[in-house]
Every structure is written in C-alpha cells, then in structure tokens.
Design goal:
Blueprint (H helix, E strand, L loop, with lengths): L6 E5 L18 E8 L7 E9 L4 E9 L4 H18 L5 E5 L2 H6 L1
Parallel strand pairs: 1-5, 2-5
Antiparallel strand pairs: 2-3, 3-4
Protein name: RNase H type-1 domain-containing protein
Pfam family, one: RVT_3
Organism: Thalictrum thalictroides
C-alpha cells in the first residue's frame, strides 16, 4: 500500500511546440508519465504510460484501453491504471505526471 508521502502528482504544462523536455524525478524516485486519448463515449480511451528512474533509465512502458463517459473520467481512469501498475511493480517512491490538472486535483 502506498503512503501519501511516497506519491507526488505533477501537472504538466501544455506544450505547444513539437518538442518536449522530460524532467526527471527527484533522486531515488521513479516517474510515470501518463498520456490519455479520449474521443467520445462510444470509443475506448487509450492509456499510455512510461516509467523511468531519476537517471532517465527506461524501466517499462504500457499501452492499455478502457471505457469512459467523459474526458475527465478518462483522465482519472488513466491515472488509476497507472497507479495500479506502479503498485504491481513495487515502485516506491514514485511521481506520476499527467497533463490533466482536474484529474490530479481530484487525487
């Protein structure tokens, strides 16, 4: 079970350029970057996430699908799926980065 002090959620700023900069987690932490694709209620959502350590070393990546009634729900489902994967991998402490401020605020 994760203790609150072992989990930090980060809201990424919208990046309008074609390039992005990955910001590593604090030393000794791992980071899960989460990306969600939502089209509409009739279409499955896409969930993608990648895990790296503080040196930027690749640990794992996953693509998944789920159903959702709204884009906000899709973002929350994506964060939940990612968190469960982190628990399954026994990652601690971990940072989860998402571009959904609303979903992060709910957590």
């Amino acid at each position: 079970m994760y203790q609150k002090e072992n989990l930090r959620l980060i809201s990424a700023k919208n990046n309008t350029s074609l390039t992005s900069i990955w910001i590593p987690p604090a030393t000794g932490r791992t980071k899960l970057n989460v990306y969600i694709a939502y089209t509409n209620v009739a279409t499955d959502i896409g969930i993608g996430y990648i895990c790296r350590d503080s040196a930027g070393k690749f640990i794992f990546a996953v693509c998944d699908t789920d159903a959702s009634e709204s884009s906000d729900e899709a973002e929350c489902r994506g964060l939940l799926t990612t968190g469960r994967q982190g628990v399954g991998q026994q990652l601690t402490p971990v940072e989860i980065e998402s571009d959904s401020k609303g979903a992060n605020d709910h957590l």
